[in-house]
Amino acid sequence: MSSVQDGARWRRQQIRAVKEALRDLNIQLSLLNRQFGARVELKDADWDCLDLINRQGPLSPSALARVAGLHPATLTGVLDRLQRGGWIVRERDPDATDRRAVTVRARRERNAELYRLFSGMNAQMDQLCEDYTDAELELIADFLRRTTTAGNTATDELSSG
Amino acid sequence: MSSVQDGARWRRQQIRAVKEALRDLNIQLSLLNRQFGARVELKDADWDCLDLINRQGPLSPSALARVAGLHPATLTGVLDRLQRGGWIVRERDPDATDRRAVTVRARRERNAELYRLFSGMNAQMDQLCEDYTDAELELIADFLRRTTTAGNTATDELSSG
DNA sequence: TGAGATAGTATGATTCCCATATAATACGGC
DNA sequence: GCCGTATTATATGGGAATCATACTATCTCA
Lengths: 161, 161
Hints:
2 copies of one chain form a homodimer.
Chain A: H1 2-39, H2 44-55, H3 61-68, H4 72-84, E1 88-91, E2 103-106, H5 111-129, H6 134-160
Antiparallel strand pairs in A: 1-2
Helix pairs in contact in A: 1-2, 2-4, 3-4
The structure holds a DNA duplex (30 and 30 nucleotides).
């Protein structure tokens, strides 16, 4: 009886530990992002947008503004800077269904410069992963993906609610 | 022989999957942070600093500037805004060894407002954690903590190197 | 005691953010 | 097909943020 309660208590602590660790990781990755951005003369929001463009593929400024949580006019400035720095191109597809539409595309040939920034963190993650079995890595990757989904939902709730 | 190679290949893919998931999570949490900040009228950097003050305990402006990667003068502006908003207090310890020193302390009585913002994400994480055993949760928390340490090291390397 | 380092903040030029306005295009009802 | 409205991307201007520099007060150490 007491052991059952102890078990429940232990479990709550475990869940709490996971959430705290996640929050600490969140802060640390934010700081790491800022250092990344500083290395290529990009503001926080600029860096976020470049990352989104790189990973979510070519997309329109309005869609990017929505997902990044930025004012459309602010995003124009962000894109101006990214384009001036040669990180992206704005394309106007001639045979697009909507002739107002602009497509923002990352210049892949410059991605090597970005990956170089990641190399330190990358090497450390490789080493860290060595300590886990295949099954454990799969478990971790799945947890991370599900957490991302949860974060996405929470973000939407906050931005719309 | 071939199966050994396949196993190694599979493993590389697993590691890659973990890193990609982590990167996606990084972006998503950045966006979530921006929404949090927007809800309490705080800029990205302001929110980061408030979070650091809350979690790393009372600390000096210079230490905060270092860890947050901000210019000292910029941090003065950040602290001004946080203080004006009533989120922190600047204290001048009378019997401190260094009389120049200022201590920045979070006003804990306002933390409830912050936790309310987290409630959505918090509830989702609770639910997500239900799918894991105690041992799995421990594994995950440990992985997250070690990743935070790795991020910390990578941040230091970038900011000093 | 004095030279130099350090903590925190003020100052001013530059840059950024964002509410609003504008131009071009799309869409829905009639 | 035509007109009112919505939407996309960007320009404009006023207010705010950023950061190099300077400044004051204090500490350290010789």
